[in-house]
Amino acid sequence: MARRTGKLREDPITRLCCRGSRGVLLALLALGCGGEREAGRGDGGAAPPAGASAAAAVPAAGDSTTRADDGMWVMPARTYDAIRYSAQTEITAANVKDLRQAWTFSTGVLRGHEAAPLVVGSTMYVVTPFPNILYAIDLAPPGGRLKWKYEPPTARASQGIACCDVVNRGAAWADGRIFFNTLDAHTVAVDAETGREIWRTKVGEINLGETMTMAPLVVKGKVLVGNSGGEMGVRGWLTALDAGSGEIAWRAWSTGPDRDVLIGPDFRPRYPQDQGRDLGVSTWPAEQWKVGGGTVWGWLSYDPELDLVYYGTGNPGVWNPALRPGDNKWSSSIFARDPDTGAAKWAYQTTPHDEHDFDGVNESILVDLPIGGRTRKVMLRPERNGFLYVMDRATGEILSADPYGKVTWATGIDLATGRPAMNEAMRTGNRLATGVCPASPGMKDWQPAAWSPRTRLLYIPHNHLCMDYQGMEANYIAGTPYVGASVQMYSAEGKGDTTYRGHVTAWDPVARRVVWRIREKFPVWSGAVVTAGDVVFYGTMDRWFKAVHARTGELLWRTQVGSGIIGQPITYRGPDGRQYVAVLAGVGGWAGAAALGILPEEDPTIALGFAIAVKDLPQHTPQGGMLHVFALP
Amino acid sequence: MRALVGTLGALGALACGSERAPAPKGAAPPTSAERLMVNAGELQAGPVVHRAVENPIEDAAAARADGRRLYVWFNCAGCHGTEGGGGMGPPLRDPQWIYGSDPASIFQTIAQGRPNGMPAFGGRIPDEQIWRIELYVRSLGGVDTTVRAGGSSGRSPTQAQQAR
Amino acid sequence: MPSHALAALLQAVAVAPQSALEPAGPGAARIDRLWDLMLWSGLAVTALVVALLLVALFRRRRPDELPPEADRPGDPRGEHANVETGGRGRAGEGRPRSERLGARWMIAGGVVFPAIVLTALFLLSVRVLGALYPRRGDTAAVTIEVTGRQWWWDVRYLDSAPGAAVRTANELHLPVGRRVRVRLRSHDVIHSFWVPGLQGKMDMIPGRVTETWLQADSAGVWRGQCAEFCGMQHAKMALVVVAEPEAAFTRWLAGERAPAAEPADSAGLAGRETFLRSGCVYCHAVRGTPAHATVGPDLTHVAGRRTLAAGELPNNAGNLYGWIANPQALKPGSHMPAVPMTNEELHAIARYLRSLR
């Protein structure tokens, strides 16, 4: 069933600012109609009143081939279905070789830049790593012009409790406001036009080890945010704040009794392992669920038709599984929730009793696929644990779960029970397991994949690593690391290999196989974006920004930038109607820790074992912080 | 026979037991009163005054091993690496010390915490334990041992550290 | 000494029976029986040997037992040998009867007899040893995991339901008459788990898991002791084993499962607050509060334990205050420091801990 967004014919902000009375009329209509849209039409699809869609266009989920691209990028995945696809066709596989840098903009910050720039109308918004400055850049003048910048009073001390660099994965725009999180566990709403702070709400406590790095999702007037700190003994949650006032509307904890996890009478988990009362308590030793992780630091998606928000939870706190016998629910789990109340509709734990730090926070990409002779509404989950799940997003049924790289920790997923069949030699409770694949950053970590409805392929930037992992004693002191594991990672090709530690894979989820794969020297820690011109863009930690052919993986264009890329590329239509590609460069993140001045050769288990695997990274990139914008000449 | 053995044992236990009636602790804890006067940075307005405060522990070898145990138990290793290679926190093996590498500065850094994310441990663990951790930290090799009394490491932080 | 005075002495120093010679459980009973057998058989053999020696020393010799003259010093070539006895007695019929008998005595008594006796004792020992410790596949209703740490015992009652596991320290409770499987680990160096009244020793070796049975056939309290030198306070690493009827044991276990008692009044709340703000929470856990540290003993029900400091101090107010205020005076070298605190804080923390039954 095709759905259509309200087609945005006009650039709302430019018009409001610059086109006088018609703009005022539009603004009034937008104000009048915006509330309705958020409250419940959900699909955003039926043709809205003329111009009313202007200020509050809500991109919808579903099959994007029938949806026209408005040229904006209002949330990190652009649309609620998280497919990161742009229908623009100016840049094609044929002409991308002529792409050149249009302009750059220094963020003034050195550390890992993981965000996706936003484009709303003719303004680009960029959130930096700590101190989380928000820049608004006017795209109309050539080379961009800074409109304003907002500098939140982010607590400096929060830098000391961020496990994996002081990153930020971006902001979200809705209803004339920019929403984003700061490292010290606050959520901020800023007026998109003026840069004035509207509200700033404290949602977490840094003295408990809580930080925030994820990009919010705004659904039906609620700003959905989650915390970080699974390596600090933090108890995870997803919180909804009212977009207007910033007050907390509901909070769904990731562990604990059902009333905390917002599991109620509507909860219909598909598999027996997920059925039962208060599993968030009974699958833990006494009290351990209170420091049980399950943080929500990754991606959220939304299906307006089913009215369900999808997201996953992180690892179960302490890395030594012997300290937490039991399935440890609801860590490493996928949830489907009602956005108005937070009530859970279904859940599935991908990795019960995780022994390897296989978080479940990766993106849920919502597409409709022909499977088993009929069209199914599915979610594609390129999971940390090495399996690519195709799941029915209405019920949580797993349709397929196949390894999309080298996996040794389990032999497969039992589709009848939903449980992984674990390889006993890979257990890590108080013991050393060697040759565990994938390594803790998983087959893929947070770096988001993209889906092209044209090629029907999923483009996955990801890792090619294995590890040795030893569980050991951990002591809990609030605000300090609570890990209990000694880990060393290396290329899946073998210890000492420095030529192949990451790849970009094109995966066919219906045929369930790799279509093409590009090997990379370092783990590919940037996101991917794919366009209707059949071009896939991604960046590498050794400072390349690349364009490859979506159908064949052939390298079409690349350019070298000043620092490794771990950000999420976007493509947008500028005020001049041309297509632009933008990405943030600035190495860091967990993968880039080795380039931040630490010493893995003298201490091989630092950065949770990642740094030694990429100890040659500093030779390939310094730190940096730059926005790069590209276009055809 | 058994009664005799038991009696001897009991007498022995009694003898040891006389040590078991300790006096309750008297005055306020020494930590706050004796908080060291050490600057956080290297610049001093006016003429420079050198104040050398050494680690008061005498039996360094045993205390250093104990310092390593505390370094792990209190999760210093979790941020700075088991061997001081760094991670969430800066490395302790290299010669860059943002807040000073002399014993008193390291002591204060641990006790007071520091603004960019070093938590404060003072007041909750005794000074003795902080000095032991300081011994271990200094043994990791990052301290420029050619610099003598005066309290300054003699090296300024690099640009990379300014980003922290 | 009058037994009631002895009992008073024992009470005063909170010493529970710790004698391998007074077994109260099947393990120690087996060992005791074997020990008795070895003792008496050893005594018997010793008596026999001493008797033979005395006989040999004081018995008068018969003429045919005298050595040949040639064996007298000064005549090495036997030139003055007694021809009738064949000189040195090398020829068979020439050897004195006493010598032949002596050789037989030596072989019988020095080779055959010890071989038989020792083999028998060895086989018995092996049999007893094999019966003392669990084998793969043995089941038990209760499994306890004890981890030896310098210098205390980290005790966990395991359960198939992860939330029902119990963690305590330095004290074990057993149901009377039922055997309990004890898994032994070590956190740091080699320790050895020994409750002489109930069972033999079993080492706790870092990196390995060893196992033993514990069973008490009557209700009572026994003292155990670390039996492998493990550092400065090895001598003060004791534990208390309490055997109680099944119902009482179940009640105790259920009580241990419960989280810490909520303070009953504002003074108690202030005490908990002081505890949570202190350095105690860097090492100790109290379930039901934000204190989750595990490098020190779990204090959730510390007030219900009989001793402090690993069996060394009776658990009463004075000892608790003294232990918190200055542990190094009582157990120098132990890992518990004198946490900085004022008198008021000490009072508040001790009061709070004494409420944790």
Task: Describe it.
The complex is a heterotrimer of chains A (633), B (164) and C (357). Chain A contains five helices and 38 strands. Chain A is mainly beta. Chain A has a five-stranded mixed β-sheet with strand order 1-32-33-34-35, with no helix packed on it. In chain A, strands 2-38-37-36 form a four-stranded antiparallel β-sheet, with no helix packed on it. In chain A, helix 1 packs antiparallel against helix 2. The longest helix of chain A has 21 residues, at 21-41. In chain B, helix 3 packs across helix 6 and helix 5 packs across helix 6 (127-139). Chain B has 164 residues and is an all-alpha fold. Chain B has a domain at 57-150: Cytochrome c-like domain (Cytochrome Bc1 Complex, Chain D, domain 2, Orthogonal Bundle), CATH 1.10.760. In chain C, helix 5 crosses helix 8 and helix 6 packs across helix 8. Chain C has helices at 3-12, 26-58, 97-132, 246-257, 266-277, 317-325, 327-330, 343-354; strands spanning 142-149, 152-157, 166-169, 171-175, 180-186, 191-194, 202-204, 210-214, 220-226, 238-244, 307-308, 313-314. Chain C contains eight helices and twelve strands. Chain C folds into three domains: 26-132, no CATH class; 143-257, Cupredoxins -  blue copper proteins (Immunoglobulin-like, Sandwich); 266-354, Cupredoxins -  blue copper proteins (Immunoglobulin-like), CATH 2.60.40. Chain C has a five-stranded mixed β-sheet with strand order 3-2-1-5-8. A five-stranded mixed β-sheet of chain C has the order 4-10-9-6-7, with helices on one face. Chain C is elongated and about 110 Å long. Chains in contact: A-B, A-C, B-C. The interface between B and C is medium-sized, with 31 and 34 residues.
Topology:
The complex is a heterotrimer of chains A (633), B (164) and C (357).
Chain A: H1 12-18, H2 21-41, E1 85-86, E2 100-106, E3 118-120, E4 123-127, E5 134-138, E6 145-150, E7 172-174, E8 177-182, E9 186-191, E10 197-202, E11 217-219, E12 222-226, E13 237-242, E14 248-253, H3 258-261, H4 279-282, E15 300-303, E16 308-312, E17 333-337, E18 344-349, E19 365-371, E20 374-382, E21 387-392, E22 398-403, E23 410-413, E24 420-422, E25 432-436, E26 450-452, E27 457-463, E28 465-471, E29 485-491, E30 502-508, E31 513-520, E32 528-531, E33 535-539, E34 544-549, E35 555-560, E36 570-573, E37 579-585, H5 617-620, E38 626-631
Parallel strand pairs in A: 1-32
Antiparallel strand pairs in A: 2-38, 3-4, 4-5, 5-6, 7-8, 8-9, 9-10, 11-12, 12-13, 13-14, 15-16, 16-17, 17-18, 19-20, 20-21, 21-22, 23-24, 25-28, 26-27, 27-30, 28-29, 30-31, 32-33, 33-34, 34-35, 36-37, 37-38
Chain B: H1 2-17, H2 30-33, H3 60-73, H4 76-80, H5 103-112, H6 127-139, H7 159-162
Chain C: H1 3-12, H2 26-58, H3 97-132, E1 142-149, E2 152-157, E3 166-169, E4 171-175, E5 180-186, E6 191-194, E7 202-204, E8 210-214, E9 220-226, E10 238-244, H4 246-257, H5 266-277, E11 307-308, E12 313-314, H6 317-325, H7 327-330, H8 343-354
Parallel strand pairs in C: 1-5, 4-10
Antiparallel strand pairs in C: 1-2, 2-3, 5-8, 6-7, 6-9, 9-10, 11-12
